[in-house]
Amino acid sequence: QVQLVESGGGLVQPGGSLILSCVASGIRFSINTMAWYRQAPGNERELVAQITTAGTTIYAESVKGRFTISRDNAKKTVYLQMNSLKPEDTAVYYCNGAYSYWGQGTQVTVSS
Question: Residue 63: its pLDDT value, please?
Answer without folding.
Answer: 98
